[in-house]
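Predict structure. Chain length: 389.
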Amino acid sequence: MPYYRSVGELPRKRHTQFRQPDGSLYAEELMGQEGFSSDSSLLYHRYPPTAIVGAQEFTPPAWSRLPNLPLKPRHLRTHKLDAGGADPVLGRQHLLANDDVRISYVVADRPSPLYRNAIGDECLYVESGAARIESSFGVLGVTAGDYVIIPTSVIHRIVPIAPDPLRLLTVEATGHIGPPKRYLSARGQFLEHSPYCERDVRGPAEPFLVEDEDVEVYVQHRRGWTRYVYANHPFDVVGWDGHLYPWAFSIHDFEPITGRVHQPPPVHQTFQGPNFVICSFVPRKVDYHPLAIPVPYNHHNTDSDEMLFYTGGNYEARRGSGIEQGSISLHPAGFTHGPQPGAAERAIGVDYFDELAVMVDTFRPLDLCEPGLAVEDPAYAWTWARRTI
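Prediction complete.
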């Protein structure tokens, strides 16, 4: 994250003696990216963060990928995955994936185990419900509309807050997720043309200390999964500072960029990851040229697949296609896509769109996973021709 935070107790100088009340040294941990060459934070533990007393291979719920064949637009109805009794990590239903990113959905009503993703950053989007994101850095409270960025290898736990279940769209990267570089100065400050800034970002505000022994932590890593047993609870950090930590940003704080004629998706970009981007479509004034057509024109993104998660309001370009709350559309490279028949005509003269959606554009093809195929609307591909096949 591009700005500095300091939480809890710290010594005046880095890498110097910092002693506990009993005179023993706090255990210093540097968590950093790109081999000491990028963002990092320095944490101070009561106990060694290296002390494990057990390690066992773990087999997570199985999933596989199938190519989008025949190549066609897809519509997945995530609310048909409602099963209940899931946790926000091991209960994820994988929908779409490639070698850069995996997109899942979960309806959770119980806390996750302690979990570390050692492959890449995760971006969580809260469709509904509320939760506490507990980590070695502290606690983040999140609610509907929040994005949460959890950096690689942060040990954390997601705790849904009753009574409503927690609905999460999860984006797991194979690298790092952050604001688009064009929104940032050379030193990492948000620039004036950015649709959000530091004031919109929330991070942990105080330490979160838990005393416990022989604590299980599930780790997803490049060779599979391992279930460790730590000698002491990893939430033993009395203070930390730096630029790397879990943070949250509400889609409702995204300030839309508009123009006289229809603006392309890059104006909606919110984050970038390895070979993909995440965009936010929010309620906004739309095109004000006297001859404007506010809905998108037909377009063929020759280099990317477009996934759109519909999470509120009315999406004008998709009226009549069966799209509903919680729907996911996939429009693949190699196929021209655009508004449904009649949408362009209906949009003329409209000056405001009340829509909320999260888009993930990938630069490698997205494969389909079994849970996604299980809730596919098979009629979607033919709706532009107004036929049932």
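Summary: The CA atoms of residues 121 and 320 lie 36 Å apart.
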